[in-house]
Amino acid sequence: MTMPRTPQRIALAQALEQTPQFRSAQQLHAHLLQEGHEVSLATVYRHLNALAEAGALETRNLSGGETRYRQCRSSGTHHHLVCRDCGETTDVADTSVEQWVQRVGDRHHFTDIRYALELSGLCAGCQHAPTG
Amino acid sequence: MTMPRTPQRIALAQALEQTPQFRSAQQLHAHLLQEGHEVSLATVYRHLNALAEAGALETRNLSGGETRYRQCRSSGTHHHLVCRDCGETTDVADTSVEQWVQRVGDRHHFTDIRYALELSGLCAGCQHAPTG
DNA sequence: TTGATTGCAAAGTGTTTGCAACTAG
DNA sequence: CTAGTTGCAAACACTTTGCAATCAA
Fold first, then answer.
1. Which residues of chain A make contact with B114, given a CB cutoff of 8 A?
2. Residue B9, Cβ neighbours under 10 Å: how many?
3. In this structure, are B63 and B42 located in the same domain?
4. Residue A132 covered by a domain
5. A118, B19, B35, B121: most buried, per Cβ within 10 A?
6. Does B83 sit within 8 Å of A110, measured CB to CB?
């Protein structure tokens, strides 16, 4: 159970700390290189998988086979509203969906319910801009 | 806008008709071969993409880069409750989430809101079975 | 006839892994 | 010293695509 505090691991942890956004292994890797850290893509993948497996990261599967990761944050549930044009992300704190989900599970006799909700739209600043 | 009714296309359409389950391109391809149809994997992929793009199929991205498809059924909005153990899929018809989403969008001055909600749990039959 | 469709095999993506060198503790 | 970690390059799984042959209308 020893666990070396290698510079790579530390750098990745910091990168994950920085934003609440979901980012891909490749994005994170590029980010680390830009910051001057020496890490290989393989190492990034390895840590990401380990962290996700340990429950420290949330994951999201995109079309194209890409997986994005982000650190588990607030204990309270919240969702993200992402602007499809500029990418701006807003946290949405609200528990009504949570309650609804619980009810649905009960009604269908399902237990250990998990759910993922993704919201996207056009933010105030992007509503007149053409999407392309 | 001609559109040949090829045996491959017909067979695939029938296969999609058969179950409400999400299935991968490879699963569908294997299924078709078993039924005695001659189709290439490439063709299955091509049709699946076309149908999904046209809005005739719903898709789901799994970890591992796999995409699963199934035919769109009810016109009204609904969600899916999937059993993590046996894969059984239940449709959940309910509009309260829809309304909530709309409210959230308004509150943040976002327009053209889209959302995706995925629900998973353990169905009644799988609640005592070990997950492995 | 003619444009859409098909199959094949090659190419492409994102991710994983074997292995030898390396390093934190 | 030694188990865990790293980088590289090869391997993987799923999907996409170029192209020539084929087929439906």
1. 119-121
2. 17
3. yes
4. no
5. B121
6. yes
Per-chain mean pLDDT for chain A? 81
B42/A117 Cα distance (integer angstroms): 32
Tell me the whole-structure pTM to 2 decimals.
Answer: 0.70
Decide if A34 is inside a domain.
yes
Contact B117 A120 (CB under 8 A): no
| pLDDT tens digits, one per residue of B67-76 | 999 997 655 5
Q: How many domains does chain B have?
A: 2
Looking up residue B112, the CATH number of its domain turns out to be 3.30.1490.190
How many H helices and E strands in chain B? 4, 6
In this prediction, residue B121 carries a pLDDT of 76
Residue B26 tokens, joined: 């490879």
Q: Which nucleotides of C are covered by protein (CB under 7 A)?
A: 3-9, 13-18, 23-25
Residue B64 maps to a domain: yes
Mean pLDDT of chain B, nearest integer? 82
Q: Low-confidence residues of chain A, pLDDT below 70?
A: 1-4, 73-78, 82-89, 126-132
In-domain check, residue A2: no
Q: Where are the strands (E) in A1-132, listed by range?
A: 23-24, 57-61, 67-71, 78-83, 89-93, 111-122
User: Domain with B38 in it: what CATH number?
Assistant: 1.10.10.10
Bridge partners of A117, per DSSP, are: B117
Say if the Cβ atoms of A108 and B123 lie within 8 Å: yes
Q: Does B62 touch chain A (CB under 8 A)?
A: yes
Could you list the residue range(s) of the whole structural domain that residue B100 is in? Answer: 79-127
Q: What's the farthest any 2 CA atoms get from each other in chain B?
A: 55
Q: What is the mean pLDDT of residues B56-61?
A: 86
Q: Stretch B110-125: mean pLDDT, rounded? A: 76
